[in-house]
Amino acid sequence: MCKLILMQRDIRRPSTFFMTSPFKSFSHFIFKRYFALRANRDAVVSYSLDPMNAKSFHKRGQALLLLSGMQQRSKAAMKSFERALQLGTLPASTRRDAEQWHEFAKKRWEEETPLPGGKKSVQECAVQ
């Protein structure tokens, strides 16, 4: 019981627990996930306060792509980048960055989406 309480206390402060853990690869995964979830939360709060803030959509897309390779997260990231590009308030360098991230999210989404008939991309599917 005492060990569990100490572990819980350490988990609340990731810098002490994750850096000294003997399971380095697992601890880095948890550390990365912790900050990606935090970045996603901050971006959602940011664009809920200011819906015209394109940088918050850009940051949310990056955080979603960092979390995992799930199809739903890739699609949400793709839509976040599209929204950031539609708003048009990004500086030129960040706009290029958002376009590259959007292409990466689109490619990842296409790789994860099962298509009928063994088609390789969405463009090959005929709209019926």
- The CATH superfamily label of the domain at 25-110 reads Tetratricopeptide repeat domain
Oligomer: single chain
Distance between the termini: 61 Å
Could you list the spans in which at least 5 consecutive residues all have pLDDT below 50? 1-13
Bin the helical content: over 70%
Description:
This protein has 128 residues and is an all-alpha fold. The protein has a domain at 25-110: Serine Threonine Protein Phosphatase 5, Tetratricopeptide repeat (Alpha Horseshoe). Helices cover 75% and strands 0% of the residues. The chain is built from six helices and no strands. It has helices at residues 2-12, 14-20, 24-49, 54-67, 71-87, 92-112. α2 runs antiparallel to α3 (24-49) and α3 runs antiparallel to α4. The longest helix is centred in the first third of the chain and has 26 residues, at 24-49. The N and C termini lie far apart (61 Å). 21% of the residues are buried. Residues 1-13 have low confidence and may be disordered.
SSE blueprint and pairings:
Layout: H1 2-12, H2 14-20, H3 24-49, H4 54-67, H5 71-87, H6 92-112
Q: Key features?
A:
single chain, mainly alpha, Serine Threonine Protein Phosphatase 5, Tetratricopeptide repeat, 6 helices, 75% helix, disordered N terminus
